[in-house]
Amino acid sequence: MEDEDVARIARSARVIAVVGLSPNEARPSWGVARYLQSQGFRIIPVNPGHAGKTLLGETVYADLSQIPADARVDMVDIFRRSEAVPQIVDEALAHLPDLKVIWTQLGVIHDAAAEKARSRGVTVVQNRCPKIEFPRFL
């Protein structure tokens, strides 16, 4: 992943579905989502254990297929184990018509799922954190 790709994502993404967003403020997912929100991104929490509740002022959805189409999600940030990535990518490709980016957090890598998304024209960033990468470009 080149810096120009990260810069483009940081400047163009607007709505980010955070898969695995925890309500626990001590968890990395909460800190990253809160940071992104503070930078003007709309965060859409995805966590089946908290569906219907509110996190960071936004309704929590059970999975990506439940997010209304008019939300216009253009990036999915994944805070789940690598084994969960293929199902999440398939769901994102099937249900998010505005999808431009799949981003997996530090330690989360699934090359086959990444290649599938890339073959559909989606930019994929693996094993990186937008809270670390974005500040250089915002």
From TrEMBL:
PANTHER family associated with the record: COA-BINDING DOMAIN-CONTAINING PROTEIN, CYTOPLASMIC PROTEIN-RELATED
Matches recorded under SUPFAM superfamilies: NAD(P)-binding Rossmann-fold domains
Domain CoA-binding: 9-108
Protein known as: CoA-binding protein
Gene3D superfamilies: NAD(P)-binding Rossmann-like Domain
UniProt-listed InterPro entries: CoA-bd, NAD(P)-bd_dom_sf
